[in-house]
Amino acid sequence: MTARIAGRLPDELDEPQAEVYRAITGGARATGPQAFALTDEAGRLRGPFNAMLLSPPVGMAVQAVGAAVRYESVLTDRVREMAVLAVAAHWNSTFEREAHEAVGRACGLTDSELSTLRAGGLPDLADPAERAALCATAALVEVGALNDQEYDDTVAEWGERGLFELTTLVGYYALLALQLRVFAGEGPKDPCDTPQTESRTP
């Protein structure tokens, strides 16, 4: 499937759309090293961001959630990027995988950890806080809920705030993956090519 909506040049945007564009390309996303480009060479938004221009009120709110889970969370950079990549593997999102593998490398994820996440597994993590967060992520992705042990383990390491932020992150990147399927032409996995996932028990 090819993209269903064309990218818009900056000078083609009306003011509400331009406000969303500025919010996405400016602020925290524009500071520091850029692991992946938000726009193409002509300035069109890439990936899921282009679709946010279709509804500026909703697009503005969605991008704000994304900025909050990336830049204002108590989760560490490593945990955040591993969780994003677990979502990307589940949804087979090429854009999310490529973009966040680049971010993950900058955050210290190893080639082995990236390869395991790409295959839909969980890395062998020594840190108990990272293990708890990734086991919770796997449960959220696979069944959409946590059992009591998973809930207690995650809260013990990250607090209720951290767990709330983790569930928000998983939901946000699942939303982007869905919109990439609908608007940008990404497709679901071939059911005959689904990797075997590792147990989420640490």
Structure description:
56% of the residues lie in helices and 0% in strands. It is mostly helical. It has one domain: AhpD-like. Helix 3 runs parallel beside helix 6 (128-142) and helix 3 crosses helix 7 (148-183). The termini are far apart. 35% of the residues are buried. Residues 194-202 have low confidence and may be disordered.
Structural class: mainly alpha
Low-confidence stretches: 194-202
The percent range for strand residues is under 5%
Rounded mean pLDDT is: 91
Taken together, the total number of domains comes to: 1
User: Strand count, sense and closure of the main sheet?
Assistant: none
Query: Roughly how many Å apart are the termini?
Result: 38 Å
What's the order of the H and E elements?
HHHHHHH
Based on the structure given, which CATH architecture is correct?
Up-down Bundle
Shape by Cα distribution: globular
- What is the number of beta strands? 0
CATH topology label: AhpD-like
Helix content: 55-70%
Instruction: Please give the radius of gyration in angstroms.
Output: 17 Å
CATH class: Mainly Alpha
Number of helices: 7
The CATH superfamily title: AhpD-like
